[in-house]
């Protein structure tokens, strides 16, 4: 374990042999390599603490480390639930291995979180991992804190390093797993000369959480479910978690966590064995998902543009290099024809031939079309493309959705796949069918976002 860490250093005052023994004989046994830093002692403990952390980071910066875990000598692993600890470890390993972080704290007091476990406030510098590229930023912050401490000469003020760093948390990429992995031992503190109570039961407990029953299906369905989960979590102040049985595409058999959903990957498998309340969607109808329950599970397709925050669209990780394979595609209009599993399907085969003719007529006669389809044989059988100025685009699901979003306009099928290709860039002419299913009981108003053109089917 912890092989993804480049350096592990613990800070220890020479006279605190009691803490040294606990760290080296218990806590540090988990790490394949580590070193001790002889802490700088000062009559003002907060100043000595700041100087010690600064010295450790300056050495790491000089050595050009990839990352460093800085520990204080009163660390203790949280072993209340090893299932929780293991899922927290999975999150930390993914974040650090990917480099998509500035700092990862293993345990802070009174934390304030975003829904994606970004840390916006948290006290205590007893255990934190710093990305090598971020060390200069954190060093500058600690040096500001030290300068202020040397003026005020007070160990209990906002210039202590573990409070002065709040300004960085607000604007940069800090994370902390839930529940925390590390707390402090309850013993004598050399900073404030009192017994420090390190139990912090309030941060070991899991805050309100939310998950989706199954982020599965094709890419379009998964995007809707993740978008709604993200939206509701942010709106209700909940933490997102994703369990490890989700995310396999029914069409390609691949997981999108290494591509389009990279932003949320640290939440993948970050699951907790607790009792949840399941709330089921009503006939595809938009709802608030209000609940006083501590942990809730969303169950439904949640296909409504009102669940999608624009910030969500900006966090989808597309690879733009596919544009170079299709020069000129941004001057074309995409046209999506869904064949394959839709053909003869009693729910989805709604008969769109007349719709396509009317949709094509919405664009000038000289328009060039880029056709996206999962069934080229079926698409070629359609008479409405016989005299069309068009080219077939054959790419994987993720690149296809991105390319559709880059076209000058679009004609959607009754499919969440091309719907997303349209919605990701809604400031252009986009045509949608007035009918989505063969069942009138399904509420479909959520597909029709402002500005789209609806053609009767």
TrEMBL record:
One Gene Ontology CC term in the entry: membrane
InterPro entries registered for this protein in UniProt: Glyco_trans_11, Glyco_trans_25
Transferase as UniProt keyword: yes
Keywords: Glycosyltransferase, Transferase
A UniProt-annotated Pfam family: Glyco_transf_25
MF term (GO), any: galactoside 2-alpha-L-fucosyltransferase activity
Ranges of residues in domain Glycosyl transferase family: 43-76
GO biological process, one term: carbohydrate metabolic process
Alphabetized PANTHER family for the sequence: GALACTOSIDE 2-L-FUCOSYLTRANSFERASE, L-FUCOSYLTRANSFERASE
Protein name as annotated: Glycosyl transferase family 25 domain-containing protein
Organism: viral metagenome
Lineage: unclassified sequences, metagenomes, organismal metagenomes
């Amino acid at each position: 374990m912890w092989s993804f860490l480049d350096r592990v250093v613990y800070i220890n005052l020479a006279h605190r042999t009691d803490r040294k023994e606990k760290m080296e004989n218990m806590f540090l046994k988990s790490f394949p390599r580590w070193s001790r830093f002889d802490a700088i002692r000062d009559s003002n403990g907060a100043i000595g603490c700041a100087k010690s952390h600064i010295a450790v980071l300056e050495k790491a910066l000089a050595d050009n480390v990839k990352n460093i875990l800085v520990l204080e000598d009163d660390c203790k692993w949280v072993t209340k639930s090893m299932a929780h600890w293991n899922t927290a470890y999975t999150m930390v390993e993914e974040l650090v291995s990917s480099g998509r972080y500035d700092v990862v704290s293993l345990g802070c007091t009174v934390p304030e979180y975003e829904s994606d476990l970004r840390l916006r406030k948290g006290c205590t510098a007893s255990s934190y991992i710093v990305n090598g590229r971020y060390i200069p930023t954190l060093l500058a912050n600690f040096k500001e804190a030290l300068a202020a401490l040397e003026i005020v000469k007070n160990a209990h003020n906002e210039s202590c390093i573990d409070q002065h760093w709040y300004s960085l948390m607000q604007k940069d990429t800090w994370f902390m797993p839930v529940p925390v992995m590390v707390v402090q031992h309850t013993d004598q503190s050399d900073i404030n000369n009192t017994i420090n109570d390190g139990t912090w039961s309030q941060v070991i407990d899991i805050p309100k959480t939310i998950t989706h029953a199954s982020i599965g299906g094709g890419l379009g369905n998964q995007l809707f479910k993740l978008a709604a989960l993200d939206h509701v979590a942010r709106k209700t102040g909940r933490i997102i978690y994703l369990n490890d049985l989700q995310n396999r595409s029914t069409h390609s058999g691949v997981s999108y966590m290494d591509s389009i959903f990279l932003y949320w990957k640290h939440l993948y498998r970050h699951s907790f064995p607790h009792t949840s309340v399941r709330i089921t969607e009503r006939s595809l109808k938009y709802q608030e998902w209000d609940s006083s329950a501590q942990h809730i599970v969303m169950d439904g397709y949640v296909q409504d543009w009102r669940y999608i925050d624009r910030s969500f669209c900006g966090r989808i990780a597309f690879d733009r290099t596919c544009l170079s394979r299709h020069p000129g595609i941004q001057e074309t209009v995409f046209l999506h024809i869904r064949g394959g599993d839709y053909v003869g399907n009693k729910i989805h085969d709604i008969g769109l031939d007349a719709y396509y003719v009317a949709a094509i007529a919405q664009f000038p006669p000289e328009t060039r079309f880029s056709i996206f389809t999962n069934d080229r044989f079926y698409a070629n059988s359609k008479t409405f493309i016989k005299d069309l100025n068009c080219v077939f685009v054959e790419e994987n699901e993720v690149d296809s959705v991105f390319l559709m979003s880059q076209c000058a306009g679009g004609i959607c099928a009754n499919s969440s796949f091309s719907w997303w290709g349209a919605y990701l860039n809604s400031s252009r002419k986009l045509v949608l069918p007035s009918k989505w299913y063969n069942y009138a009981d399904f509420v479909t108003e959520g597909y029709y976002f402002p500005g789209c053109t609806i053609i009767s089917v």
